[in-house]
Amino acid sequence: MKKSIMVLGAALLLGGIATAQKVDFEEYNLDNGLHVILHNDPSAPVVVTSVMYHVGAKDENPERTGFAHFFEHLLFEGTENIKRGEWMKIVTANGGVNNANTSDDRTYYYEVFPSNNLKLGLWMESERMLHPVINQIGVDTQNEVVKEEKRTNFDNRPYGNILTVVKENMFKNHPYRWNTIGSMKDLDAATLDEFKEFNKKFYTPNNAVLVVAGDIDKKQAKEWIQLYFGSIPKGETLKKQTFVEEPITQTINASYQDPNIQIPMLVASYRTPSMKSKDARVLDLISSYLSDGKSSKLYKKIVDQKKMALQIGAVGFSQEDYGMYILYGLPMGTVTTKDLLKEIDEEIAKIQTTLISEKDYQKLQNKFDNQFVNANASVEGIAENLAKYYLLYGDVHLINNEIDLYHSITREEIREVAKKYLNPNQRLILDYVPSKDQVQN
């Protein structure tokens, strides 16, 4: 009885939090095409100023890969009014933090300041958009930074090139076929003029969304936004190219030798639809059911019960045009990667032929409710979600109602979507193995 009361209390608490977390916002456009979203949250004296640009690795020239990620670094070099090396100093001296990140679809910059420094945050982001200094010394400096990042996170890291190999095998036509960090050879070959042209084309007000979230006075914020961003010239109207991949109709087999590992890894990757589709959201539930954490079906069966693997898991890549569902496993002892694949296929077949239990279905819904609440639990999370839902999904209101789409998914839809996308003839099987030198040693 006591346990039941505790569970009920937790459910009521979670429901209260979910209701309290409804995000109010206001959005409008400047004359130059910059979309602005304001969210007032006086609960803490902080403010986030962020800009998301609709440019990622998929917008690059195939012979100049890595540009979008490179600009994530380059646009911290300085501006006409912020001297080289001063950006971080200004932020920290005023009690703030900042960062940026890049994906295949977009690039995101943000600052978090005490709320009395909103004007400073807006000025800095307007400087980045209007007055970036792109010169050879900055390019050369960041080139070395990116090369070190690639060595650390990819080339010298155990299993560090899995995503690179998966993408180049899963996509033949779409720019998703190369990794976001790109090729160092391409960056070395690029001229200064090419970097300037990339900036001129993509880092424009009409290819971006500005989000201001936190303890703000909206009237004052609008005045400062107009002051700093209103005069920035509109860029060229971009026509996004559409890339279509032919359906995968037979198993793609590939292998890769990694000198940094001693245990082979099984990798099975399925191509999935755009993250904007309902099917993609159904696949999110399937991924969580099969492979999210130690309570998932695959982990309990393969790691806990049969002790066939050191690790089993999955990575889901939800992206604007296509996605990927990548399952991986590290076999233990005499178990082979083929043995792991057989176990995985058995669990997928169960979903395709039998409805998951009502208990497992409710567990999934509870997990996604919790994730939805946590995603909007901080002003930083709210700012990025507002930008993402506008720029990539085309619907800011999803910040409040996307969870309803997950609630609408039935057990029958889970079964049908599994049958539609998770078949042996629709995937890549990658043998990710130690290099021959490693095996001999």
Automatic annotation (TrEMBL):
GO biological process: proteolysis
Sequence ranges assigned to domain Peptidase M16 C-terminal in this UniProt record: 190-367
Signal peptide: 1-20
GO MF terms held by the record: metal ion binding; metallopeptidase activity
Gene3D superfamilies: Metalloenzyme, LuxS/M16 peptidase-like
The organism's place on the tree of life at top rank: Bacteria
Domain Peptidase M16 N-terminal, chain residue ranges per copy: 36-177
Listed InterPro entries: Metalloenz_LuxS/M16, Pept_M16_N, Peptidase_M16, Peptidase_M16_C
PANTHER family: NARDILYSIN, NON-CATALYTIC MEMBER OF PEPTIDASE SUBFAMILY M16B-RELATED
Membership in a protein family: Belongs to the peptidase M16 family.
Protein name in UniProt: Insulinase family protein
Organism: Flavobacterium cellulosilyticum
